[in-house]
């Protein structure tokens, strides 16, 4: 699968906008990533829409997830 450089540039631009709009989220993720989260860690997410409806879900971190995180870190450097 070939990587589209224009799409990568668009993604980088959008990520910078996300970081500007949500600095606490980015710093939280960076602090968790810096301390590491081993395989088997459970990440829980909660979403509340404007009407107050809640959805909660979780994932258990797998070896493949950690490989994906590693690739994303390499893209950032």
How is the secondary structure organized here?
Blueprint: H1 5-21, H2 23-35, E1 42-48, E2 54-60, H3 63-76
What does this protein structure show overall?
- The protein has a two-stranded antiparallel sheet.
- The protein has helices at residues 5-21, 23-35, 63-76; strands at 42-48, 54-60.
- The protein starts with a helix and ends with a helix.
- The protein has 77 residues and is α+β, with helices and mostly antiparallel strands.
- The model has no long low-confidence stretch (mean pLDDT 89).
Q: Can you describe this structure in just a few lines?
A:
The protein is an alpha+beta fold and 77 residues long. It has helices at 5-21, 23-35, 63-76; strands at 42-48, 54-60.
Write out key terms for the chains shown:
2 domains; 2 strands; globular; two-stranded antiparallel ribbon; alpha+beta
Shape annotation: globular
**Spatial separation of the terminal alpha carbons:** 21 Å
In terms of structural class, how would the helical and strand content be classed? alpha+beta
Beta-strand portion reads 15-25%
Query: How many β-strands, per DSSP?
Result: 2
Average pLDDT metric: 89
Q: What would you report as the Rg, rounded to the nearest angstrom?
A: 15 Å
Helix content: 55-70%
Task: Extract low-pLDDT stretches.
Answer: none
Element string (H = helix, E = strand) = HHEEH
Tally of alpha and pi helices: 3
Largest sheet: spatial strand order: 1-2
Largest sheet: 2 strands, antiparallel
């Amino acid at each position: 699968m070939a990587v589209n450089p224009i799409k990568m540039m668009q993604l980088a631009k959008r990520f910078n906008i996300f970081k500007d709009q949500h600095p606490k989220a980015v710093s939280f993720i960076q602090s968790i990533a810096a301390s590491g989260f081993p395989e088997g860690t459970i990440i829980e997410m909660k979403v509340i829409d404007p009407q107050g409806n809640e959805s909660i879900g979780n994932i258990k971190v797998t070896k493949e997830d950690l490989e994906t995180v590693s690739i994303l870190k390499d893209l950032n450097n």
